[in-house]
Amino acid sequence: MRQPVVVSNVRGLGRPSKRFLVKDSLLLHRALVCCIQESKLDSVTPAIWRSVGGNHFDDYCWSPSHGSSGGMIIGWNSSTLKGKLIHSGKFCLTVEFHNSLDDENWLCTSVYGPNDKHLKQSFWNEIRSSNGDKNQGVPYREDITQAQALMRDLNLVEPPSVGRHFTWTNGQANPTCVRLDRFLVNQDWLNCHPRINQSCLPRFGSDHASIKLTTGHHNFNQHQFRTKLRAWANTTFGSIKLRKLNTLHEIENLDAIKDTRCLSESELQRDSELKQTLHNTLNLEETHNQSILKETKDIGRAFTSFFRSQLGSNNTSRLHFDWNKIFLNKARIDLLALEAPFDQEEIKKATFDLGADKASGPDGFPMFFFQKFWSTVKDDLITLCQDFYFGSANLERINWANIVLVPKTNSPEFVSDFCPISLINSSLKITSKVLASRLGKVIESLIETHQSAFITGRCILDNIVAAEETISSLQKRRTMGNIIKVDFAKAFDMVNWDFLLDLLIARGFGERWIGWIERLLHKRGLRQGDPLSPLMFILVVDVLSSLFSNALDSGILYGVPLGSQGKICHLQYADDLIILIAGGAEDLRIIKLIFYLFEGIFSCLPAFRKCISHKINNGNSTLFWYDGWVGGRAPMDMWPEDFARTPDPGATVNALATSFIHKLKECDPSIEDILQNLNGNSKDLKIWNRSANGRFSVKSFYTFLIDGGSHCLSSQLIWKGFCPRKVKAFTWLAWDNKILTLENLAKRRYHKRQKLDESAHAVKRSLEFSDPGRTLVTCVVVGA
């Protein structure tokens, strides 16, 4: 047997969501045989088993539950194993297997013991009889003595354990940990598989940890015909399987710590976050498979799981800043005025400064109502603000919002095409506006001059003029320079709250003010639609601006000289950042390092490797797993299972290429020519794959930013040709696949999508063409 056996105590398979979780776990560990205990099912129909075993475990046998406990299932892959039911009892389920690959016969017995002490003797007798031992022996008083006698009589031994020791916990703050689950094998099995061992798998969905028996001779074959699917998954969502493996690995590490001591408060919080992350990842894998969702419940689940994983960050930052050094060049500002008592005029001004025509929140009262009937509601609003000031207001009843998903494109097709906007209660919005008005008076002294968003007196045109002057300065000096445009995805939603509160303390905000902020915006991320959120956000991104300024002042970054005005290296407008440098590759490395530092606390890192490929010569300077050297792809994205198991993720191509030669040849037939040159003297090269000559150019990068690199090589021929303008426009639309074919109409008209989809597929089948361009050029029907 060359693949593992997995045993899972699942604590019930009645719910479909639980069956999906078990199925995902079994397929993730790629076992050949699975033994499921405590199914709590009276019967296991083929439909139920397919929802658990999938196509991999296509054959099975089972024993029913007894009341609300018990029930066992053994599943296996019939293409490799032929199984025959030998015994099905109350406590044991035995199957005889024949392995067609190794021509090996062996027995597998799944055992589930009773809790009732009156059934213990029947339990031991059934185990003996099911394994061919008719010697009942003398009744023993202690279970441990019974177990020792059973192992001695049946010649059973326990394989060595790897990793964690305990398999069950009661889940309390001071947990009780016990080893309840284990494998037992006979001596003949050990002789055939001398490298056998058993290990615990990550615990989720049950208080029991699954256990896995391995023989040390795995043969993980690469699945075929999945290259395009994996490339799509990596560019759209990231590797979901890799994210799942990493999450399970962290859960396993925390389970190992539980075996030795109690978890700390931060570790308990991390354990809860990891389980929620795993749940969200499984939802992504279940729903985001590029299929069209039509049922209301499916659409709701897709949106919920996506935005729940996107909104905010509960993870503790893995980096900690020395605030005194970051803000060394910034003067301490007196912020005591922010905590002054609220007065009536201030509250009234905040109420009338808010837009009267804005959509209302959950309370149903638009701002126009409060402005129109100010004389009637002013006393209640003033009381609310005063209670908020002294901390006696019950915000739990009003501090919530309706989230409206606003499409970012004219024809949204994916969940990511929508932006969440928070419609908060108007009464709380007035309170937030009072705080925002106060902060707006001092924000200019807190934020660097490079930031031009959300600050009174500053305008985006200021940065445009500064950028033009910088470029002009470079041109006059005939100096080579670089201009980098950076935008952060989901910037408001990904703000880390621990970092924000530490930042407020470092900038000198008082304890009362920080308490207000924590009570108003203490959940996840920053709400788009709250008057206070933009100012909080520019405080956060000002840290990035300070990192660049400190690097420039200390001489680490060269920047761009502006004559008597000194130097400049960056400009900001909210989350849009422009970096200007006149230095060389060293400056670019420093910029990348600054982004990595900021990503450690802000969780938004630009993707640097999309536009770079690698030419392998001696393979000593290219990282095997991380660099995209196999047809522009990185092996960590192609083989996430192998990457998760590798002991040396930082190994070079020269060190690991021969170990993966068969997989490499399957992915890229030309890889053999690369491997023959690994022992040469030539160094590896990085190639800019957006230009024909492999060298970087601003034009190629601009083209990539504008249209993703999909440049039409015939554009000059189309627009410069001697034909009517309507023909040129139609040809251009045909190249860009924007012609109103039935398929494209189906994408736009949701209410008629099903009928149009059927018509489109019917036309495709009749014409035998799937590409619109090919249809226009070669189809005789269209040509006629």
TrEMBL record:
Database matches in InterPro entries: Endo/exonu/phosph_ase_sf, RT_dom, RVT-Znf
Domain Reverse transcriptase: 387-630
This protein's name: Uncharacterized protein LOC120252722
Organism, as annotated: Dioscorea cayennensis subsp. rotundata (White Guinea yam)
Record Pfam families: RVT_1, zf-RVT
